[in-house]
Amino acid sequence: MFYCGLDIAMKSSYLYIMDSEGKKLASGEVATEKKSLAERLRPYLRGGLFTAIEAGNQTAWVHDLLVSLGAQVTVVNPTKVKLIAESRCKTDKIDAKILCELLRLNGLPHPVHMPDKPARALRGLLVARRQLVSTRVKLCNVVRGLARQEAIRLPAAALSSVVGWKRLLAGGFEQPHLVVVVSAYFESFKSLTASIRQLNQELAELERTDTRAARLKTMPKVGRIAALTFLAAVDDVHRFCSSRKLVGYSGLAPTVRSSGERTEYGSISRVGRSELRAVWVQIAHLIAIDKSKATAPLRSWFTKVAHRRGRKTAVVALARRLLVIAYHMLKEETVYDPERLKRKRAA
Description:
Strand order of the largest sheet: 3-2-1-4-5
Shape: globular
């Protein structure tokens, strides 16, 4: 049995290999390329090779390569490997050696979940969409600032459509250069909108082929992006032994400080999938201001919590509850049932 610690870098990585007795067998740099890694590790595969790597931007393809070669791969969060994160003498060789030794002694923290290729593709599409939407929002905000220079105050949704941009340009500006600048931004807005539309079509196709998304969309205020964001972040809901683990993964769990008989709960940890946290907190906001019958049980619960703890705390609490509901819906393969919430409230 062989153990390998692999410290991945951009051009060249460092590997450290030892046997089950802790004897060093090999170490050194290797090009961070598929062919080079395969050639260097192949002699140790027949005896059984266990490999540890840290999570990073090249983890996915390295993980897939090692698995295809027949190695057992453990991906760890670098911030949780304290011997590496807190080491004063930190080099690639030392990092690889520590990873290898901890792997051999079964001392590594809980491994990072590696989603399959479809899940990674979904994450990639959602990341690209979020970046494009963010860029478009920033662009619109710049134009709003330019308009204010000429005492033009635009309504909230004035620049959300092509019609709004054309109306702004048709009104003219006292400063001639602003026409040129806004026109240039308008072209960028149209290009960004077209790209976002293209990604939306890809996401719509993925949604149609995933029954889990249809289940999640039975929840009030949960649309395509919220459902797919949940699925991309969580991947397989059965990997969480409880809904509490999922809440912790989202970063919505409160921090806890306990000493003796005293326990204090602080703000949310914010450790985990930030996109999952952001989207589902936004859903909680929408439910809190909604007036429809579909959101009544959740809104009633929110109102009670807000009365005791304040609105901000209640929104976060509602987001946590929504994640718990989504967790059980997928695990039990059911749809949203508001009557079930009413029965729990009455019990």
